[in-house]
Specification:
Elements: H1 3-14, H2 21-28, H3 32-46, E1 51-56, E2 60-65, H4 68-80, H5 90-103, H6 110-117, H7 121-136, E3 141-145, E4 149-153, H8 156-168, H9 176-183, H10 188-204, H11 211-229, H12 238-244, H13 248-264, H14 270-281, H15 299-302, H16 305-322, H17 330-348, H18 358-364, H19 366-383, H20 389-409, E5 413-418, H21 423-437, E6 441-447, E7 462-465, E8 477-479, H22 486-496, E9 507-516, H23 521-534, H24 541-554, E10 558-560, E11 563-564, E12 577-589, E13 592-601, H25 610-621, H26 624-632, H27 636-645
Parallel strand pairs: 5-6, 5-7, 7-8, 9-12, 11-13
Antiparallel strand pairs: 1-2, 3-4, 10-11, 12-13
Length: 649
């Protein structure tokens, strides 16, 4: 399988509906003909693993799985490790070269690398162009010496973090034996010994680590052991040393280092003990946490005043900008505060960390992620440090959990069913509502239409009726079919979510621009910002555009499926609106192809709930067929008809 085929399989895996070859071609930026050719080859390959790609007339291609066990085994091989697995591909060779250079304790000759990869020197030289660029992002260069070969050159801490990134984090954390074999950092027995020592000490100090955090700690210490043996040591600044020497993490690091020294005959310099303590401080280190149940933990018991005040400021800022009503959520405050100490340590010392949930959070919880961006910007302004996107994602997870708690704590909506076709139909509708919406909806009872006037509605949120109701009631009425079609479900879902049913409520004809020829995201954002200003919705197009680009620099808003939803860092407009732009050809949006742009501006007065608007947008992001239909539109009427047809309002 080539990388295009793997990409096609990934897109088909997440699609709920068939995907056309034209849409796939835009996603992976090749021709439709190439996609169709790859699909034929991919289908033949998948037949050996219990799956097939079925062409569906006029709709596109869909993935069909016939043997779940075999197909899961294939996914494990292809995706779980995250590794390029085709030795003939440049990606494979470049990763191999980087790993060899990181592990090597001597100069490597290009001739030897070419022989190991079975390629020519010219091919290897081409690969090195990309390798140099990748390593430069970590502040690492390649030292070349005639007659000796090449080796890496850079700050020792940066080199170790690079080892972690390219040898550890790109492997499957759960497959420890495979991990040890591929890294070749230390012998398996030594790895087992280090793991046992760390486990003993974190138990003694009352530390709670996830499996991933524990394994990463083991590996980072193993990297330190290897680098010390090779004659390389960490250099720490005096100020940094003094700031951590009295911490509990440092005492634990001393004990871990002492035991490893005795068992492996390695002398740990003091700076290396400080390096271990930094990794301990990069995890949630709550001494005595086991003696304090979660419901009795308060920030003042566990955290210093600065962290506590920073956490409160973050929640206040999020509430001010997004009106989520979370600033008084004590559970969220504790979670954010406990997260901040290790997070700030990681950022302060440049310790790289992966967030495997980042893309999922950005796509499925965009409002929570926006809260994470706001939190990161506040931290940056107060502490003068740059928060990476991975850390924004972790902050967003805390906010998302709080939003879910809010939703769960709110009482279920109550409805009354009006049905004219008999008791059997009424009960069928009753049970259908209960089974579909569960604890979110309480059906208080059923009634015939003629009895409706006799029933008090003061404790009812809305009425579900199989016939139009002429009288004006004190609550909303949803007219449905007895058997509840998909459109009926959407209407009820809208009421349960607090959404008002106003078709195209966020769209204005003067802010929809179809089949444009922009070539960059900056060009598209500037144009849409100017048009929003011309519509009298914002004070300054330059200030608005600057805030949108600042948000993009913090974390790009391309969500996949050819869609980008840029927006300013903080709300700017009077009213929530969408400025929409489709393009004739996809443009690069921070590494992802984008052809559908919705520049979103939320009401700065907070009068409209942002969750409502985000729910609408997410339906677009997740539906490739609808996106493609919108991209084909040439008039505003065509565009709005598609939105109405698919209930995207």
């Amino acid at each position: 399988m080539n990388t295009r085929m793997i990409s096609i399989l990934q897109h088909l895996l997440v699609a709920d509906v068939p995907v056309k070859s034209e849409h796939l071609a835009k996603l992976i930026q090749v021709t439709s003909r190439t996609v169709r050719s790859d699909i034929r080859e991919l289908d033949d390959f998948l037949s050996k693993y219990g799956a097939a790609i079925e062409p569906i007339r006029s709709r596109g291609y869909a993935l069909k799985i016939t043997d779940d066990h075999s197909f899961r085994a294939l996914l494990q091989q292809l995706f779980i490790s995250g590794e390029p697995n085709d030795p003939a591909s440049p990606d494979y060779r470049q990763l191999y070269i980087i790993r060899r250079l990181l592990i090597a304790d001597h100069f490597l000759k290009l001739e030897d690398l070419a022989d190991e990869l079975y390629v020519s020197r010219s091919t290897l030289n081409n690969d090195f162009k990309e390798v140099r660029q990748v390593l430069s992002n970590y502040g690492i260069s390649i030292d070349t010496r005639p007659n000796y070969g090449i080796r890496l050159k850079g700050d020792e801490m940066r080199l170790r973090f690079c080892i972690s990134e390219f040898i550890i984090n790109r492997s499957n954390d759960e497959q420890i034996d495979h991990l040890e074999n591929t890294t070749r950092i230390l012998a398996p027995k030594e790895m087992t010994l280090i793991r046992g020592i760390i486990l003993e000490k974190i138990k003694k100090f009352g530390v709670s680590l996830s499996d991933v955090a524990f394994n990463n700690l083991v590996i980072h210490i193993a990297i330190a052991c290897k680098r010390i043996r090779d004659g390389n040591q960490i250099a720490m600044h005096t100020i940094e040393i003094e700031s951590i020497r009295n911490d509990e993490e440092f005492r634990a690091a001393e004990q871990i280092a002492e035991l490893i020294e005795n068992e492996l005959n390695i002398a740990f310099p003091e700076t290396e003990i400080e390096y271990i303590s930094l990794h301990l401080a990069g995890n949630k280190w709550v001494s005595g946490a086991k003696e304090h149940p979660t419901d009795s933990i308060t920030p003042d018991k566990l955290l210093n005043a600065n962290i506590y005040e920073l956490g409160k400021s973050i929640l206040f800022e999020i509430d001010k900008d997004l009106n989520l009503k979370i600033s008084h959520d004590s559970e969220l405050l504790i979670g954010i505060c406990l997260h901040l100490k290790p997070a700030l340590n990681r950022v302060k010392y440049g310790m790289n960390i992966r967030n495997p949930m980042l893309d999922h959070v950005k796509t499925n919880y965009p409002l929570a992620f926006q809260a994470g961006v706001i939190a990161a910007k506040l931290i940056e302004s107060k502490l003068n440090i740059s928060i990476p996107e991975a850390e924004m994602g972790f902050l967003a997870i805390h906010v998302g959990a709080a939003m879910e708690r809010q939703r769960m704590k709110s009482r279920p909506k109550r409805c009354l069913v009006v049905c004219t076709s008999g008791v059997g139909s009424a009960r069928l509708l009753y049970y259908k509502l209960q089974s579909t919406f569960g604890t979110r909806l309480e059906v208080t009872g059923t009634t015939e239409y003629y009895k409706l006037s006799q029933i008090p509605l003061h404790d009812i949120d809305f009425v579900v009726s199989t016939v139009p109701i002429q009288e004006t009631l004190s609550v909303p009425v949803v007219v449905v079919q007895t058997l509840l079609g998909v459109g009926d479900m959407d209407k009820i879902e809208a009421l349960l979510s607090g959404e008002e049913e106003h078709p195209l409520r966020y769209i204005r004809e003067d802010l929809v621009f179809l089949r444009q020829n922009f070539t960059s995201k900056e060009e598209a954002i500037s144009f849409l910002g100017e048009r929003i200003h011309a519509a009298g919705l914002i004070r300054s197009s330059e200030g608005f555009t600057g805030l949108v680009l600042e948000r993009e620099n913090a974390a790009p808003t391309a969500y996949g499926n050819l869609v980008a939803i840029p927006h300013p860092l903080i709300p700017q407009s009077d009213g929530t609106i969408w400025a929409i732009c489709t393009l004739k050809q996809p443009i690069d949006w921070s590494g992802k192809p984008v052809q559908f742009i919705c520049l979103l501006s939320i009401d700065k007065n907070g009068e409209e709930p942002p969750t409502t608007m985000y729910n609408h947008l997410m339906r677009i992001v997740d539906h490739s067929e609808i996106v493609q239909q919108m991209l084909d539109c040439e008039t505003y009427d065509e565009f709005t008809q598609i939105m109405i047809k698919h209930s995207l309002y």
